[in-house]
Amino acid sequence: MFRTMMKSKIHKATVTEANLNYVGSITIDRDLMEAADILENERVQVVNNNNGARLETYVIPGAPGSGVICLNGAAARLVQVGDVVIIMTYALISSEEVAGHVPQVILVDDHNRVSDILSGEKHGQMV
């Protein structure tokens, strides 16, 4: 049996752009993608802390070090520049691998630069 488990997330990134006229997707600073082990075209779930909107889309790499978090296409209607989002990835993991699986949590600063990397999460943990 395989289970879908959180692989990684970028926690509390700030939306820098919303581009309604693009075909679709989310553009993420390549440095953040690498820290969170996210590949180009990989499916992600995006949760907007400001309004509760949740969406799935795929990733386009942005310039490294730019801090870009840009929702494109229809997804741009679910965010405003300045909103805080959580970007999550998932992986299918065998039942045998679940016990040893530890997701990576990428914390970012106000400019969407990596400020810390956590191994997993605990209930009540505040960041």
UniProtKB/TrEMBL annotation:
Stored NCBIfam families: panD
Top-rank lineage group of the source organism: Bacteria
Lineage: Bacteria, Bacillati, Bacillota, Bacilli, Bacillales
Top-rank EC class of the record's enzyme: lyase
Keyword Lyase: yes
Subunit structure as annotated in this protein's UniProt entry: Heterooctamer of four alpha and four beta subunits.
Record note on cofactor: Binds 1 pyruvoyl group covalently per subunit.
Organism name: Paenibacillus medicaginis
Recorded name of the encoding gene: panD
PTM section of the record: Is synthesized initially as an inactive proenzyme, which is activated by self-cleavage at a specific serine bond to produce a beta-subunit with a hydroxyl group at its C-terminus and an alpha-subunit with a pyruvoyl group at its N-terminus.
Cofactor dependency: pyruvate
Name of the protein this chain belongs to: Aspartate 1-decarboxylase
InterPro entries: Asp_de-COase-like_dom_sf, Asp_decarbox
Binding site for substrate: 57, 73-75
EC number(s) per entry: 4.1.1.11
Keywords: Autocatalytic cleavage, Cytoplasm, Decarboxylase, Lyase, Pantothenate biosynthesis, Pyruvate, Schiff base, Zymogen
Pathway connected to this protein: Cofactor biosynthesis; (R)-pantothenate biosynthesis; beta-alanine from L-aspartate: step 1/1
GO molecular function: aspartate 1-decarboxylase activity
Cellular compartment(s): Cytoplasm
CDD domains per UniProt: Asp_decarbox (cd06919)
